[in-house]
Amino acid sequence: MSKTELNSGSVRGPVDHDVRVQIVAAATEHFSLYGYEKTTVSDLAKAIGFSKAYIYKFFESKQAIGESICANCLSQIEADVRAAVSEAEHPPEQLRRMFKSIVEASLRLFSQDRKLYEIATSAATERWQAALAYEGRIRELLQDILQAGRQSGDFERKTPLDETVMAIYLVLRPYINPLLLQHGFDYIDEAPAQLSSLVLRSLSP
Amino acid sequence: MSKTELNSGSVRGPVDHDVRVQIVAAATEHFSLYGYEKTTVSDLAKAIGFSKAYIYKFFESKQAIGESICANCLSQIEADVRAAVSEAEHPPEQLRRMFKSIVEASLRLFSQDRKLYEIATSAATERWQAALAYEGRIRELLQDILQAGRQSGDFERKTPLDETVMAIYLVLRPYINPLLLQHGFDYIDEAPAQLSSLVLRSLSP
């Protein structure tokens, strides 16, 4: 599909989707080189070779493009975490792997691509939908592991489940949220093991 | 003691101490009005009515003055926390009070005096001695409570004490360190109770 075709104006559903994907891919590359905060939609349009007006047909703002990029990054982290968790059979080990893999995956994003990390920081600061939805999905995964552990008899059942989920989420949050993660490097090597051990002690029946 | 006397150059031990206290008091007031980062030693000297050279006789840098102010603030937080802890008799309740009071005292500093909080932020970012010493004293207090709880039979004794201290310190850290605290306001009301409950569950014998 050439840019001329795209610019012809005859856009329909599936084509819309392709153009959006194309814009997000180009924007990801551009932001990862020049940073998110400093780039305007005009800069982006020039770099991709689209008109600014054309980009605005698909995304209402720079933030909307950033949200898509952010959602992709966070989905990748989530997929890594789910893969690590699913490798373990027993809920206690699943919880350990969740702590370990979420810190590793978040750190990978931070160290491999600082410019994209900047987008995650904006997402966290301005509470973008993509970031909030991700936090919700992480809490759901946590809840699933806790429920499985209660059923298997590995975890205590006295504490209300939502209270346990929330407390453990609070323990994990400094290593998920990019605003907090960037101040936690002193303890990053030992924190996942030490915190998951503490949490597992708190869950013993 | 007049400023003329102070400027006469005949400073000895106890007088040195008085002048230092006087400079720190004046600097605290000045920084709390104009901010730490933006103020230079020259600004400060002018505001206090001392020469810059005279201030440098007592403090080798602006940071050295900031360290003294920071140490005072952190000592105040520590005193509040120790007072709250000492009101409780049993180690589990002492631990709850430690969590509650440390968050409250840190928040008070943050909300009452944003300009002084800026000094605490610099201290945490640049790892000033005053901040590191404070963190060490907080870990000691935690260890004392844990040891008392192990002796009273309230807390389990299987986990190595230093591991327990470190893990609980990591749970508490986002609410102590000003760089992290400023990103934790969403959960600040519930966090102390939820986290101290989780920690107490993890400590049950």
UniProtKB/TrEMBL annotation, chains A, B:
Keywords from the named record? DNA-binding, Transcription, Transcription regulation
Q: Which domain of life is it from?
A: Bacteria
Report the SUPFAM superfamilies cross-referenced here: Homeodomain-like, Tetracyclin repressor-like, C-terminal domain
Q: Which residues mediate DNA binding here?
A: 40-59
PROSITE patterns to which the protein is assigned, alphabetical: HTH_TETR_2
Fetch the InterPro entries from UniProt: Homeodomain-like_sf, HTH-type_TetR-like_transc_reg, HTH_TetR, Tet_transcr_reg_TetR-rel_C_sf, TetR_C_27
May I ask which residue range the UniProt record assigns to the signal sequence?
Answer: none
Q: Which residues form the HTH tetR-type domain?
A: 17-77
Gene3D superfamilies per the record? Homeodomain-like, Tetracycline Repressor, domain 2
Question: What is the recorded name of this protein?
Answer: Transcriptional regulator, TetR family
State the organism of origin: Pseudomonas cuatrocienegasensis
